[in-house]
# Entry
Amino acid sequence: MITATQAPEKYLEIFDQFNNRAGAGQPRWLQSLRQDAFARFSETGFPTTHDEDWRFTNVAPLANTPFGLASLETVSREQLDLFGISQFACRLVFVNGLFSQELSNVATLPKGVTASSPFGEYRSEYSQEGRLLRIAFRGVGGKGVYPKEKLPELQAWLNALAEDNLTSVVVSIPPM
# Structure
């Protein structure tokens, strides 16, 4: 049986393999965050029932479970077609947690939308830099009661949002 203080040693080699595999493809802030987290884990190990916050949770079975780095599997387009994903204009494929640029189709990423009005603000951004895909949405709805003369402006704002293929927009109309 492995004790909580022995457990981090068995993960050191796996962590080094992971860092070598991820290499330059990961941002520096993420490398630093992972290094700090693993250093802390190496100091403390898995929590035990002697730790106040973990007194009711025995993680020994987890600590004794053999884990390894996922193998670098190859997946073909034919295998993906079995799932019917070729019909989608934008396709993101991850194999064992790693983004596969070869199997993904991000050429048709939306251009992004910015819409601002008294009814709210909405902004979306889509970009890809190598293996890094960035998708950001920000929406803030306006509150208040507006006169019916504002209806055309509300329709224009909702049409601007629709350019981003939103699946739903909630508009609350008070009873008259």
